[in-house]
């Protein structure tokens, strides 16, 4: 028999479901089935359920006995995990993404501690789906994967022994994000506004932005501004520049319009 207060408690948390269901946790090339199951458990304990796996080493990892055992009651989250071949596929439809990294990158947004990073996530989720991205247990995220994400986070662990298990890292971020979502829904609790972007227009999705980069790169090659044989770090720097701005859909369309006209002019000039 259900406790009479259970429905009241559920109703009280109903408004929180928007952020919780609009957040996906992405594991890139996870090697160990047990970590995938433990990550599913970490998500469920914090109220999340969307798990995306990019090219896991064990293709049917959500059915692996070790993964199921480590999920320990979060079998539903594990079974519903979405498996995709690339990070680009995992980010389709998301308007903001946070990459977790254990080291500082030369190119990419500066990393923030999880507690600060999730405050930004809390603001961005109002515009659509967001994603938290975690790398492989051994190598972490590649530079290319980091550049594809909007923001960067780093867990300030003990420098003498900073090795975090993948599922532990997922738990830390899920916990911090849960607190941020709960605080955002509590009357009288304001989120920090430093660096916040307030916009009434839709943000561009990850796939919109990736198409913009391809279009822009082709235009720069046509202008002889970018040498494809010796690109150096031009596109990486441009990605970092645009990542800081929080691109709106209309802004992406403007950049692509510029690129389109450059390409048209270049073709006309070549005739």
TrEMBL record:
Keyword Cytoplasm: yes
Subcellular location: Cytoplasm
Any one GO MF annotation of this record: tRNA (cytidine(32)/uridine(32)-2'-O)-methyltransferase activity
Family: Belongs to the class IV-like SAM-binding methyltransferase superfamily. RNA methyltransferase TrmH family.
UniProt entry keywords in alphabetical sequence: Cytoplasm, Methyltransferase, S-adenosyl-L-methionine, Transferase, tRNA processing
Biological processes, Gene Ontology terms: tRNA nucleoside ribose methylation
UniProt superkingdom: Bacteria
Record's function text: Catalyzes the formation of 2'O-methylated cytidine (Cm32) or 2'O-methylated uridine (Um32) at position 32 in tRNA.
Name of protein: tRNA (cytidine/uridine-2'-O-)-methyltransferase TrmJ
InterPro entries: Alpha/beta_knot_MTases, RNA_MeTrfase_TrmJ/LasT, SpoU_MeTrfase, tRNA_m1G_MTases_N
Database matches in NCBIfam families: rRNA_methyl_1
Gene3D superfamilies: 1.10.8.590, 3.40.1280.10
Subunit and interaction comment: Homodimer.
GO CC annotation, single: cytosol
Catalytic activity: cytidine(32) in tRNA + S-adenosyl-L-methionine = 2'-O-methylcytidine(32) in tRNA + S-adenosyl-L-homocysteine + H(+); uridine(32) in tRNA + S-adenosyl-L-methionine = 2'-O-methyluridine(32) in tRNA + S-adenosyl-L-homocysteine + H(+)
Known EC number: 2.1.1.200
Matching Pfam families: SpoU_methylase (PF00588)
Domain tRNA/rRNA methyltransferase SpoU type, chain residue ranges per copy: 24-175
